[in-house]
Amino acid sequence: MPDGPPPNAADVEAARVLLQRLGVTAEHLLTTAARPASTPTFDQYIDRIALAVPSGSLRAYEPYWNRVRREWGTRPIDEPKPLEIVQLAERFKATALVRRNTRGGRSAAEHLISALRCLYHYAELDGYITPWANPAAQVSKPRRLASRRRALLAGQLEQVNHIAATTGNDPELDALLIRLHSETACRRGGALALRRCDLDQDHCLIRLREKGETERWQPISPTLMRHLWAHAAERGDEDPQTALLRYRDGRPLTTRRYDYLWNRLGRNLPWVTVQQVTMHWLRHTTLTWVERNFGYAVARAYAGHDGRRDGGTTATYVRADLYEVATAVAALTGEPHPLARSYPRV
């Protein structure tokens, strides 16, 4: 207990008014920790958190952290105000790389704010800032525009397959990529992460490791399995843990192959360029077909959406299993699958 007489009512009221004007509550006074003696700069702190975040987050945020270094590298991390973050985001929008599917730099601004929120989350944990003094949390992300992606028509998908398999410097590889994505609805990261040890020939399954450190077994057709295995035997090395998809010279594929492929498809199919079609459109195409023919639960499992935010509470009770996904694959490809409960013709 403090020494001396208790404060009078007028002093208490004056203190209450002052704290209210400052936006400070009693909880703040109880929980606020003393500021560390030395607050790190952005250069120092980014080096530290880069060792703490998952590899997927590092790939996503590192380009934006590097730009923050160039802008604020020598400044203490608790110095920038929310307005400065807004101004920095606007500069990112104005200088964003123009791609075929650009949306005016909105994604660049959104990813910058996400990268700073990640940084300041760790700064809160380390006690360098308090939650109510987090400048990134006070900045709203740009509103996301409605996606322009949609399912391709059957004729459009046939055109994409034909051009991929008959043009370019490695049509065999590109045809395999199109078949892999249109049959599994996987993301680019899932395809690039494939290894020979991820192929289960007996059950026609491949193991997909995608964003959010998710991992699942995805049924595929016997035909696709044969082609993946032949590709691995022809271009891979003896290590089953290394990348499966490779160029003719044995180098593992990167995202640059996807850019090359869709730029070529756009030169041969003008609607691909006009509508800004990418590999992700094949995911939309397949999942739309699965949902129309097998229902939402199977489409959700087919997509690998198993998080709580992917479908609401009801999804807990209507979850589809691997065998139902295999049944959908059999109907999609017209080939029997060893795990399918039946062989429906849709």
TrEMBL record:
Annotated CDD domains: DNA_BRE_C
Coiled-coil regions listed in the entry: none
Domain Tyr recombinase, first and last residues per copy: 147-330
Record flagged with keyword DNA-binding: yes
InterPro entries: DNA_brk_join_enz, Integrase-like_cat_sf, Integrase_catalytic, Integrase_recombinase_N, Tyrosine_recombinase_XerCD
UniProt keyword annotation of DNA-binding present: yes
The organism's place on the tree of life at top rank: Bacteria
Entry keyword set: DNA recombination, DNA-binding
Family: Belongs to the 'phage' integrase family.
Annotated protein name in UniProt: Tyrosine-type recombinase/integrase
Organism, as annotated: Hamadaea flava
Lineage: Bacteria, Bacillati, Actinomycetota, Actinomycetes, Micromonosporales
